[in-house]
Amino acid sequence: MAKTYKSRIRLWHVEIGYCPRCNVPVRGEKCELCNSRPRPLRFHDMGDIRPASAHERELFISLIPRDARGYFKRRIILLARQPGLDYRKDVYVDGYKVGIMEYAHRDGWHWRFIPTGKGAALLLNFAEPEFTLRTAGHLKGKKIQKEISGEWALFRAGNCAGVAVRTPSGVKVKDIFCHAVKPAKKSQLEDAVRANVSYLEKIEKKAVSMIKHSGAKYVAFSGGKDSEVALYLAHLAGVKKAIYANTGLEFPESSRFVKKFADFLGVELIEVRPDRGFWDVVEEKGIPTKENRWCTKHLKLAQLSKFHGVLVDGTRRYESFGRMRRTRTAKLGNLKLIYPILDWLALDVWLYIHYRGLPYNPLYDMGYERIGCYMCPSMLNAEFHNMRSTHPELFKRWYEYLRKQGFTHDEIMDGVWRWSEMPAKLKEIRKS
User: Fold this and answer.
1) pLDDT digits 0-9 by tens, 93-130
2) What pTM, to 2 d.p., does this model score?
3) In 3-state terms, what secondary structure has residue 154?
4) Cα–Cα distance measured from residue 130 to residue 163, given in angstroms and rounded to the nearest whole number
5) Which of 119, 237, 250, 311 could form a disulfide with 211 if both were Cys (CB 3.0 to 4.6 A apart)?
């Protein structure tokens, strides 16, 4: 991978392989289904590409033309994070980007999908164009004299397929693609697993070897996918103890899964809690924000730092810009931390979970990408809003607390409380 530098943080130009013949992502040098060499699939440096969850698949499919939905139900859908205020993902199907799905604030928060030109060409294999343009020449970015029924519309212009979007100044051409796009072979995640068995065995062996040579005694286990894989790998390496730092703000599904998975592996689960809970300390320290997450230090790290020895941690560098700077080991009090899956993509984690047939936290299929405290400021607004239907009592408790602190309903729902200093983009959106 070629390296680049941004803000003195080391990043990588990230790509994975993709086998067009089998229609699966490939992480090794060849596809193990057909023995062919994959072509590259590039994505954003911090994209952390992964398969769409069951919840995300349903969302995406609901946002495309009805006649095209059957096709996408039978294909692997990959998502890669894009910079944005909230949930914003590049959507890859058949090995190329078909559009962007996001949780957007325009006339209220809502989900939307905007196709790329190539995505429009694929969709037009199944759906009818909303209109036809006879204009020749360059169209991308141009305003057109058309009315469209929704936020976006598919159109044809000669041999080209395009997508037009509604903007405050009128309808404009968002993107256009002037080549045929043929439907690809059906594929599911199980096919991707079979195409990557040797690669998965290789990264497993490397991680297990690192853990064995470290002399690790414990694993930090939160109930999320990364810490689950770290615990499983440590279990293979002979580590028999997991530490669960229960903040008192966990989703009930996480607390149950942590205990069930420890039982599943037959490892000892050591549950630790802070001496003073969140609801006592928040009155002194104030509402935690993205810039001041005192809660992590008080509720989790302070409890872990009481242990001695080597601790296995499931941190991955592609989770955030801050974690990009991690080295393979660190110190926390008397603990030495090691990160055996530091270089894994989220795709690797999910392929490995399915390869080993491991159960996983049900919150992932309920619309949660980040597994942590239910009122975490790092949670996406999409997840916070989702909590109204999945966990109404937890949502109500945090909502009512924020109201008592002086936040209005709109400020709470727009996520203003998450920042000590509101980002310029959010200020702009809230003014519009």
Assistant:
1) 999 999 999 999 877 899 999 999 999 999 999 999 99
2) 0.94
3) strand
4) 10
5) 237
